[in-house]
Design brief:
The chain is mainly alpha-helical. Helices cover 77% and strands 0% of the residues. The chain starts with a helix and ends with a helix. Keywords: Antibiotic resistance, Cell membrane, Cell shape, Cell wall biogenesis/degradation, Hydrolase, Membrane, Peptidoglycan synthesis, Transmembrane, Transmembrane helix.
Amino acid sequence: MTTTEFITYIFLGILQGVTEPIPVSSSGHLVIARELFGIEASGLSFEIFLNTASLIAIIFVYRKDIIDIFMNVMRYIFKGARDDKATTDMRYTILLIIATIPVGVLGLLLKDDIGDHVSVLFVGLMLLLTGVALWIIKNQRGKKRDGQLKLKDAIIVGLAQCIALVPGISRSGATLVGAIGVGLNQKDALRFVFLLYIPVSLGTALISIGDIFSDPNMSTYGLGYLASFIVCIFATYFGVKLLQGIMQSGNLVIFSYYCFALGTFSILYGVFA
């Protein structure tokens, strides 16, 4: 492995990490980066590898929520607890599972086709679509809390996540639009979005573990894979904190502007390059 190749993997890890949690499409950024810089390294298995790194960071950020929910669900199931916290978290977990089902089924059906032969032009169009969706919900301030989520709300957010299987459509963006669209307040919408990411990403990693370790690049570029994995964890943590801060300040529209700018550039590049 050359120094240039090693730096390339570091760059891809940072790019994936920062863009995975924020609503700007990490897969779209990887497509654009490969085209602009002639990056050959990586494939679908590598993207899943980096998604697993992002998963670790997101679990760390929301570790307290995860532990609290898990303990309350265990109390509900095994100890018969029916207090407000146990009941609410049990119901919340069921809704997370329901919201995960659509993308899980569709992902299994389309896993061999997702991401194949995607052009920069196509990614640009999808980024514009993401920007429009974010623009629509930029000023919405829902009042629903976690405990007020309904079955239809979970289904809507789950269907929104399916749209993000298309490269250039941000997963966090699609689910955030769905969650805010059904009336969740921004803080709880963001929490639902990231907790929803965990089962999807974990499931993808588990069913793809064979592809990851049979990747022919693994033996040659193992050091680069490891480096990108590590930096991706830290970059994802930064990305989550960035999104939390921007949403807390009420400036979600920043990502809409960003998608418009990058989408327009990608379209022009796709047409004239």
